[in-house]
Amino acid sequence: MDLVLSYSPPLNKKCSPLVLKDDEDVAALLASRSDSTCKIPLGVIVERTEVCAYEKSSQESTDDTDGSHDGFRDNYFDVDYCDSEPTDVGSSRQKLPVFRNVERTENDNGAIDPLLRLTGAASDEPVNVPTTEASDSTFRDGSDLHEGKYFNSKKDLKRKLSDIAMKGNFEFRTRKSNRSLWVIECIDPNCSWRLRASKIVPESTKFVIRKYVGVHCCSLLNRNANHRQATYVVIGEQVAPQYVGVEKGPGPKGVQTFARTKLGAQISYYKAWRGRKHVHTLIRGSPEQSFHILPSYFHVLEKLNPGTVTRIEVDGESRFKYLFLAFGVAIRGFRYMRKVVGIDGTFLKGQYRGVLLVATVQDGNGQCYPLAWGIVDSENEDAWTWFLTQLKEVIGDTNELALISDRAPSIKKAISIVFEKAHHGACAWHVAQNIKNKFKCADIMRSYWSAVNAYRCEDFAGYMTEISHRYPRVAKYLENEVGFEKWSRCHYPGLRYNITTTNMVESLNSMLVNARDFPYVALLDVIQEKMSKWWNDRRIVAMAITAPLTPSRESEFRPRFAQSNGQHTLQLNPVTYHVKGGELEGVVDIFNKTCTCKEFDIDKLPCVHAIAAAHHAQVSVYSLVSPYYTKEYYVLAYGETIYPVGSQSQWDVPNEVATRVVLPREVKERKRGRPKTSRFPSVGEFRKRKNRCGKCGAYGHYKKKCNSQTGSTEGNQPTDVPV
After folding, report:
1. Which helix (H) or strand (E) holds 298?
2. Contact at 8 Å (CB) between 722 and 689?
3. How far apart are CA 400 and CA 423, in angstroms?
């Protein structure tokens, strides 16, 4: 026969009687009373059980490490003890008293009262009841939480508690959670730290702390460096400020360091990577959202930047295929540029991949002047044909136009379909890489580049003769497969000026190396921001120029001007002059702006002979310079401003645009493991890897050529590790 003690708490809601199982339940019962007397009305039930049944039950409840049935504490935090409105701080709970001289009472049989037996008051030792004040064996969580504190949402409350837990070096677990309630406790079932919060009213999203015990009495053995509250979402939100206003921000290793030093949490590389991705989503939006707002984004961009051309191509299922963007400012500024357009593509690294296509020219100062941007699925003939068709509508098709690209068959085919009058040239650097890869003859590169940059066909023929004597197969490849007119400056049928490679396009690709894994709209934002900055900075530089030419052309022009003073000039007719005195003589026509050295003809910048002839004819040498190099054209090219779209909440978009459906393209499921962010090198590209010495561990030499005195690699770490 045994006794089971229970009582009904004075609550504003009905609940089942609470059973007193151990000393802690009694202490909590005493703390809930307004007075400190031990005379508490209890319900006593006499059960006929085994003698050790109650003791066994008490032992099982004590060993319950998962806290699934925790007596008074669980019911106390699972039932609403508050009125309809939260009470003031500290008004709902008294400090837990410590009972020392409790009267010992016995029943008729001389046995000690079960209540006193459970509370420990039957012994001579005092009863230590947990209190809300921190003692030597307890500590507070260090937060500013209190009963009655409001939060805008449950998410904000959870974020706050996760931050407190990581900084306080403790963990908690959820006891009960739904849309209107959240009850948590310390991960140690013997700890007193607990919190209960619920909605203010069912219709509201705001949460308020109803009950809160901020004192811990758990052991240090329960501390875990791999913090359960250090989720990738929490880590990402904590490290987010370091990504605001920058393109790259810390990498996964940097996020790990931040979590360890600032939050005291040890996280895996994968969790750090996911946290970094979560930050990107918070700041730049998700890839799916980017497709959804793309029509609205283009509408606002066109509205704020008059003349801007945008296109979105979708398939029959409204899935994204291509996009095209050309700012109106760049389109109008193209008239002040040399008509040599470089085109190329670079792969994107985001979730939906794709290829970024670029068309750019050079301004009179030799700087990149982006004309158009496009995003397609891959560099194939259909994609290039679509992009070049949109580009043709923007810049037109004339004999003066030159298109420079690599020798990709898809680009060559698309140009022949779209542009009938423009001339296509090959990038001399890509041709050189193909030669080195195909013929393994890097030692003739000096002769090759001399042939590329030769102004006169006679000089070009001499360099080609040198190449053909040493490597006949290379000479045949350059003449028959590539064609002299594609890579040679002197044989090019159109006006190529001094532009022999697509470096201007590669520079733009390098500029966006960190933004290529952004969602499409975020990537376009970076492009707009870069172009806006360029236009403003170069406008300031252009307005400050005092010379007639742009800074780079002026620096190129002045040495020629000084060299022309030693030339002897003979006038042949009113516009033709014979100039000699240097290594090469020249006959200059100052009316048609030509010279037999061909430098004046191709670059459209007066050569030494033309400058000497202008002096003799008393003509301003600046009148012979192409207007593309002048300050006037430079100012006009950057005279306008590119405006950003601003916050999405400020957009004014018609309903037919906002409701246009653009779905993400279908992509192949990625393989398991770390996502690939680097591409395979194209034909002819070499990625040199430095040799590592087996003796000293340093990079850049072999073991046989090592000058280190030690003969062992032990203790010698490389000091220069290549990236």
Report:
1. helix 287-304
2. yes
3. 8
Alpha helices in 36-113 (DSSP H): 53-62, 71-78
Q: Rounded to the nearest 5 degrees, what angle is found at the Cα of 433, between the Cα atoms of 430 and 438? A: 125
530 burial type by CB count under 10 A (0-12 exposed, 13-18 middle, 19+ buried): middle
39-55 exposure pattern, b = at least 16 Cβ within 10 A, e = fewer: eeebeeeeeeeeeeebe
Residue 227: pLDDT over 70: yes
Cα 18 to Cα 10: distance, rounded to the nearest angstrom: 11
d(CA 262, CA 601): 64
- Taking the C-alpha atoms of 547, 550, 556 and 560 in order, what is their torsion angle to the nearest 10 degrees? -40
Q: What is the dihedral of CA 195, 201, 206, 208, to 10 degrees?
A: -30
d(CA 325, CA 312): 9
| CA separation for the pair 723, 707 (Å, rounded) | 24
Please tell me the distance from the alpha carbon of residue 63 to that of residue 60, in angstroms, as a whole number: 5
Contact 590, 617 (CB under 8 A): yes
The residues near 36 (Cβ < 8 Å, ≥ 6 apart) are 30, 97, 99
Q: What is the largest CA-CA distance in the chain?
A: 144
| Torsion, CA 110, CA 116, CA 121, CA 122, rounded to 10 | 20
Cα distances from 703 to residues 698, 709, 715, 717, in angstroms, run 10, 12, 16, 14
Strand partners, 326: 309
For residue range 149-202, what is the model confidence (pLDDT) as tens digits?
999 999 899 888 888 888 777 888 899 999 999 999 988 888 888 999 999 888
pTM: 0.70
568-575: list long-range contacts, CB under 8 Å, 24+ apart.
Answer: 569/612, 569/613, 569/615, 569/616, 571/616, 571/617
Output the CA–CA distances (angstroms, integers) from residue 163 to 73, 144, 239, 256, in the order listed.
25, 12, 12, 16
C-beta separation of 391 from 380 below 8 A: no
Closest Cα partner for 170 from 235, 210, 214, 232? 214
Contact criterion met (CB below 8 Å) for 415 and 401: no
Which residues are CB-contacts of 32 (< 8 A; sequence separation ≥ 6)?
9, 76
Structure tokens at 567: 């030339």
461-477 pLDDT per residue, tens: 999 999 999 999 999 99
Instruction: Say how far apart CA 288 and CA 292 lie, in whole Å.
Output: 7
Position 489 scores a pLDDT of 92
Amino acid in position 395: I
In angstroms, the CA 334 to CA 329 distance is 9
Query: What's the token pair of residue 302?
Result: 């066109």
Dihedral of the alpha carbons of 653, 655, 656, 661, in degrees to the nearest 10: 90
Q: Return the bridge partners of 186, or none.
A: 172
Location of structure tokens 């699972």 = 78
Report pLDDT digits (tens) over 61-110.
Answer: 334 434 333 444 444 444 443 333 333 333 333 333 333 333 333 444 44
